[in-house]
Design brief:
Elements (H helix, E strand, L loop, with lengths): L3 H24 L12 H28 L1 H7 L3 H32 L7 E6 L2 E9 L6 E11 L3 E11 L4 E5 L3 E6 L5 E6 L5 H4 L1
Antiparallel strand pairs: 1-2, 2-3, 3-4, 5-6, 6-7
Length: 204
């Protein structure tokens, strides 16, 4: 059975986790420090859900700081350490919550993890991943093409191939030498990718 001192220590550490985990995860450019598991669409969906989880953790930390003040005071008897602890955690909460709300709004409007924004095309033994980026009504939209390479434990790595202007409907086809990116409406070839360059063993 846990003693009151142990419970207080666990509470203090849990609050630190609730404020530090969102910060450390957000500082990395890729979801969960570049986990890259299964597929880019799955990771995009996970990243979107993770923003709400981080918001929940920060809200929980704020609630615990307000309602467990006496327990924290009794554990952190040194006034300097106590004020530093409270100030540090309140600062992280107040900085991160507005930023998370902005990111959630932006992701909801312009970069939702839909099947259109994240597509995988299996062509001639290669997997080409296309990501559509829409920066909003006042900015440009475009398609990014990557070679998706398998990694151990169902992970993957992405090698950049090309960036093309947004065309709405598009499709990828393979001929004898190239992967062709076509406008589905006009059948115009937008980009050619030399199949000889699509070798995961030499890229990574």
């Amino acid at each position: 059975m846990k003693t009151p001192q142990q419970s207080s220590t666990m509470l203090i550490l849990f609050i630190v986790f609730c404020t530090l985990f969102p910060l450390l995860e957000s500082l990395h450019s890729a979801t969960l420090w570049g986990l890259n598991w299964q597929s880019p669409q799955l990771m995009a969906e996970l990243g979107y859900a993770l923003m709400f989880i981080k918001l929940l953790l920060l809200g929980l930390a704020f609630f615990l700081l307000l309602t467990r003040t006496e327990m924290i005071k009794s554990t952190l008897a040194n006034r300097g350490i106590r004020y530093s602890y409270l100030g540090f955690n309140y600062l992280l909460i107040l900085l991160q919550i507005p930023l998370l709300l902005i990111w959630i709004g932006y992701a909801t409007i312009s970069a939702s993890p839909s099947a259109y924004n994240h597509q995988e095309h299996n062509l001639a033994g290669h997997t080409i991943y296309t990501r559509t980026v829409n920066l909003g009504a006042t900015a440009e939209a475009f398609h990014l093409l990557y070679l998706k390479c398998p990694r151990p434990l169902h992970r993957y790595a992405l090698a950049p191939l090309a960036r093309i202007d947004w065309v709405g409907a598009y499709d990828l086809q393979a001929d004898a030498d190239d992967i062709l990116v076509r406008n589905s409406n006009t059948n115009k070839v937008l980009h050619r990718i030399d199949r000889a360059d699509l070798d995961c063993n030499t890229i990574f």
